[in-house]
Amino acid sequence: MSKNTNQSSKTTPPLPKLQKFLADSGICSRRAGEQLIKDGQVSINGELAKVGERVNPERDVVKVGQKRIQAKFIKPTIFMVNKPKGFTCSNDDPHAERLIFELLETRHRNIRLFCAGRLDLDSEGLVILTNDGKLAHRLTHPSQKVQKKYKVEINQPLEKDAFQAMLAGFEDDGDFLQLDEIRAKAGNPVGSTKLEITMGHGKKREIRRCMGRYRYKVKKLRRTSIGGLRLGKLPLGTYRDLKDSEIDLLFPKQIS
User: Fold this and answer.
1) What spatial distance separates the first Cα and last Cα of the chain, rounded to whole Å?
2) Among 120, 172, 180, 248, which one carries the catalytic annotation?
3) pLDDT-derived band of residue 238, with 50, 70 and 90 as boundaries?
4) Is 132 among the residues known to form the active site?
5) Fewest Cβ atoms closer than 10 Å to its Cβ: which of 29, 187, 230, 246?
6) pLDDT (tens digit, 9 = 90+) per residue, 95-123?
């Protein structure tokens, strides 16, 4: 019998990896969990486990030594953050000077959160921090096509050829890059340096890579909304809880 249960659909979040399950259960960190697994201290359904195996918390029997480990109920936490430049969207990056989680109050730093959609070091704006894996999966999975909007300022007026090429998309270093919509607050984006860009996906540094392809330098990049949730007047460098009604805004109903 297989240790793990297959997903019921392609859009169902994957079962957690064993080291994450151990960390979420409060046993140890993920890295320490990996070491326990490598040392042969962890079993799933009576068989020695391997690093990276996935576990069904509702069905599988996981033990560290002779002690059974069971999943804890984790209260969903969802914060919206107005990230400033200079903060890295990561839980653990030895090369980062400042992590986004340093913006949280001390009372919230002991909650195991992660970024549901990152912004690069030089960008600012709306980021969702949560411990809800299903929510994070929905926000980041390409199949959901959650629209994200950005305000972008470039160093010189946008030319027509570049405008059309970025909307059509192009191959870059093995990735297909494409901006879904480029607008300007005051009329035609062609000839403007201040743009409003919409994307329903998002590869690493995609906007900057698109602009760089046509020799534009991004002077400022700020994410202003995710789905129907807007950053609003949340001050830079601060955060707050999301209300249930605001969580629904992240996934506006699509009109067929």
Assistant:
1) 42
2) 120
3) very high
4) no
5) 187
6) 889 999 999 999 998 888 889 889 999 99
